[in-house]
Amino acid sequence: MEFIDRLALVSDPRLRVVALTGAGISAESGVPIFRGRGSMWENEKARTLARKAGPPWNTKGTWEFYEWRRGLVHRCKPNAGHPALVDMEHYFQDFGLITQNVDGLHGRAGSGRVLEQHGNMWKARCPRDGEIVDLPETPIGRLPPYHSCGTALRPHVVQFGESLDQGTLKAALGVSSRANLFLVVGTSGVVSPASQMPLIALKNGATVIEVNRDATALTPHVTISLRGMAAEILPRFWKAFLAKEARELKPEGE
Ligand code: APR
User: Fold this and answer.
1) If residue 50 lies in a helix (H) or strand (E), which one and from where to where?
2) What pTM did the predictor assign?
């Protein structure tokens, strides 16, 4: 079935639509990705600072690394890809936005309910009582910052080997298993459990559309893979979707 027919089939506001995003959606805002060309680790400073960060993640070294990342992201603005997802949230009765990003750009673009799987760098958490506090401004002065209980705070960001917030994860798995249309945008699809969510949607009969600059681990599995930059493809996809004029959006190889 040609792409347009699949698209025409699915352009209905009663659809249950989910979007899963990764670092690639923020790349054109100036936020470095984690793997491949343009990754944060190409930057010597990032590597040096990251070496000083570590468990229990509320150390001065950890905060020097995160203040560097926060300083960088603070100067970034959402790009055209982010508001396209905001429009979808307003259009569909049942829309879920799952992100692996901790940069907070979806929220700044106006997305209402974002299931932040890996946390948010503009929040901190108390390792003693678990309270989550907002840290919207950078620089935050003395490092580490302290909680009102006197304990040094840690960035509210999931580190490798740590478990995700169970409520947020459960919600993401729930919307993924009920989706009719699942968009996977700007992720290499190598980090679980997020990488499983498009496959769960596929198994439950969803149309899964990938938007990515390059082929990924998910490309062989998705229904359609659109190659290009998220800030360019997402608004075009959305315009075509609304107008059901998808002829201009040819997937890879068709
Ligand atoms: N538009 C679309 N896709 C892009 C763009 C762009 N402008 N720029 C890069 N990409 C794609 C890359 O081709 C790659 O597939 O975005 C993806 C980014 O992949 P990663 O850097 O691996 O980021 P992500 O998938 O979000 O990483 C998952 O890994 O390091 C951990 O916790 C971190 O949340 C992160 C998780």
Assistant:
1) helix 44-52
2) 0.94
Q: Is the dihedral of CA 167, 173, 175, 181 positive or negative?
A: positive
Residue 97 one-letter amino acid? L
DSSP state of 55: T
Residues paired with residue 210 on neighbouring β-strands, in sequence order: 184, 225
32, with CB counted inside 10 A (0-12, 13-18, 19+), is middle
Nearest CA to ligand 1 atom 9: 24
Per the structure block, which two tokens stand in for 138? 């950078």
Which helix (H) or strand (E) segment is 199 a member of? helix 197-203
Q: Across the 254 residues of the chain, what is the mean pLDDT of every consecutive 10-residue run?
A: 51 85 98 94 95 96 98 97 97 96 98 97 98 95 96 97 96 97 97 98 95 97 96 92 60 48
Q: Please give all residues whose beta carbon lies within 6 A of any atom in ligand 1, as ranges.
A: 22-24, 27-28, 33-36, 39, 100, 118, 186-188, 191, 212-214, 216, 229-230
H or E stretch covering 11: none
Instruction: Quote the tokens at residue 150.
Output: 């006197």
At 132, list the tokens. 């989550």
CA of 187 to the centre of ligand 1 (A): 4
Residue 2 in tokens: 């040609």
User: Given the DSSP bridges, would you call strands 114-116 and 154-157 parallel, antiparallel or unpaired?
Assistant: unpaired
Starting from the edge strand earliest in sequence, which strands make up the sheet with 119-125, in order? 132-134, 119-125, 154-157
